[in-house]
Amino acid sequence: MASKYSVKFSTASRRLADQPTTTRPDVGASSLFDNVTVQAEKELEHAEKAVKKQYQFSSTNMKTSPRKLNMLARQIRNLPVDEAIKQMEFSPKRTARKIMHNLAFARKNATEQRQMENLVVAQAWVGKGRYIKRIRPHGRGQFGLMHHKEAHIKFLLEEAPKAGEEAAKNARRNIRGWKDTKKVWTPLKENKPIYNPKAFYNW
Question: Which residue, 129, 133, 130, 128, is CA-closest to 147?
């Protein structure tokens, strides 16, 4: 007896309905993506041109402590290379003469290898070298320890920004709302904004 709800099976392939055609262009044919691609290529070329030229130099270990060497590093930081060499030439510190030779050597390499001009010591930092312990004899058969400290200095040379770039940077800062106004108290860098100022003057 045949069932009331009998199902018929067919081995023929199933035919789908025809999809409606759309008037929307494909992704590859859209002019919007073409403009994005061209703009990305232009930004990449501009980024390659805007890369700053830098030259990093590292000295060998010097027979001085990092604390003493850091005083000289602070002295030459953010100075033109010629002015930094003059400061080290007339400094009474013993390690200043070695730093002077290192600066002159780095200036020569940056000029010949990287074709850099108007060099400035953008960064200068000090690292700890060997820390040797030796015995210091005392009286009555006793002894103490003495330390032979060494340190090295690294500095980063960059090209000094041009006058037009500095003016553009100050103009951008004025657009943001930071203006160079004379106040009762100003920091060492007058064009740098004061973040989280206190309610009273603390001089």
Answer: 133
